[in-house]
Structure formats: C-alpha cells, structure tokens
Amino acid sequence: MSPVFAHGALRLSLLSMLADRPMHGYELIQALGERFGGAYVPSAGTVYPRLAKLEAEGLVTKTVDGRKTVYAITDAGRAELDARAEELAAIQTGVADSVKSLADGVRASVGEAMRSLRADLAASAQAPRGQTADEPVDVPTAGAGALREVEMVIASFRQQVRADLRRRATRGTLTEDTVTRLRDGLEALRRSV
User: Fold this and answer.
1) How far is C-alpha 136 from the geometric centre of its chain's CA atoms?
2) What is the SS3 assignment for 73?
3) What is the mean pLDDT of the chain?
4) Residue 166 within any structural domain of the chain
C-alpha cells in the first residue's frame, strides 16, 4: 500500500490540528484516525518523531502535564500554516480521496468475505445426497475428524489459490486459459473423490 501521507503532508496536518487547540500525542493520533473514519490510524512511531522535528524547528512547543506531553503551535507554526494554506487545502482534499479509497477497499473485502460466507453456509446447508434437509446427518466420530481435516485443507487451498490468482490479476497475467484449466482440474478432482 502506498503511504497515506505524501512527504510533508503529515507535518502540515499536525500543525493544522494544533492550530485548533493544544493536544497531547495520543489525542493527535486519535484525531487523525477520526479524519480517516477509522480506516487509517497512524502509529506513535509515525507521529512522535514528526512532533519532535516540529519542536526542533520551533513550530510547536511541548509542556509536560502530569504523565502527558501537550503540544501547542507557535507563532512560527501559524506563519508556516498561513504561508502553505493552498498546500494544506490540497492535503485535506487528498485525505478525503484516501479515505474514499480505503473505504472502497474495505467495502470490497467485506463484500467478498460475505459472498464467501454465504457460499460456505449454502454448501454446509446442503444435505448429503439421498437425504432431506430435515434428516439428521450421522457422521461416525472417525469420519467427523476426517471431515474437519478435509474442510481445513480445502479452506487453506482456497485461500492460497485466491492469493495467487489476485497477484496474477494485479500483474495482468490472469488469463481465460488459467480459469479454464482451474475449473477443469477442480471438476476432475471432485469427480475422483
């Protein structure tokens, strides 16, 4: 995944938030997370070094309040924000675009997981051949263990193949021939079981 913030963008975002009110580091991290709708929350290892650099440049000050270190913007920090107002506006637009992109990715993953879950539920709801759905399925204990193991093997295989196919699709090397070979191979395997 590409970085959420371009070079220097986190720096201006932190200054912008501190222009509203002084905050401690954790508050800044949470505020950034809220700006991204929870889809991205920067780590302390990302935020605190930027705050230290802003302090070294004289753009923020820090004061210790009990166990918390509170950061506040300086006049020099406000002057930098004013001088880079257009850049900050572009960053905020970029953040909105990043949030949309992250949300689209999450939505697609959740949708795919739901489709997979529905397929798994539908498959498990299918009664064995010759039985109605109301009849209980009596699986001997040894058979139940083997069935669980087979289900785990199939689930692992499915995840690995999915990952491989996604990589090929991303690189543009997933072809109709691959799909046909996979379909035919799986059908042959199903018939042999």
Assistant:
1) 41
2) strand
3) 78
4) yes
DSSP for 63-99, written as a single string = EEETTEEEEEE-HHHHHHHHHTHHHHHHHHHHHHHHH
- At 1 the pLDDT is 41
pLDDT tens per residue, range 162-182: 777 777 776 777 788 877 888
The answer to whether 18 and 61 have CB atoms below 8 angstroms apart is no
What residues form DSSP beta bridges with 62? 71
Rg of the chain taking only CA atoms, in angstroms: 27
Name the one residue in this structure whose structure tokens are 């590409």.
2
Q: Within 13 Å and on the Cβ side, how many CA atoms surround 117?
A: 6
Residues 18 and 83 in one domain: yes
User: What are 124-151's pLDDT values in tens digits?
Assistant: 666 555 555 455 555 556 666 777 777 7
Give residue for tokens 């109709």.
Answer: 176
For residues 41 and 32, the answer to whether their CB atoms sit within 8 Å is: yes
Q: Determine the Cα–Cα distance for residues 118 and 97; give it in Å rounded to an integer.
A: 31
Count of the separate structural domains present in the chain: 2
How far apart are the C-alpha atoms of 136 and 145, rounded to whole Å? 18
Is 15 within a domain? yes
Task: Give pTM, 2 decimals.
Answer: 0.49
Give the domain range for residue 92: 9-96
Highest averaged pLDDT of the listed ranges 68-72, 92-96, 107-111, 189-193: 68-72
Compute the distance between CA of residue 172 and CA of residue 164 in angstroms, rounded to an integer: 12
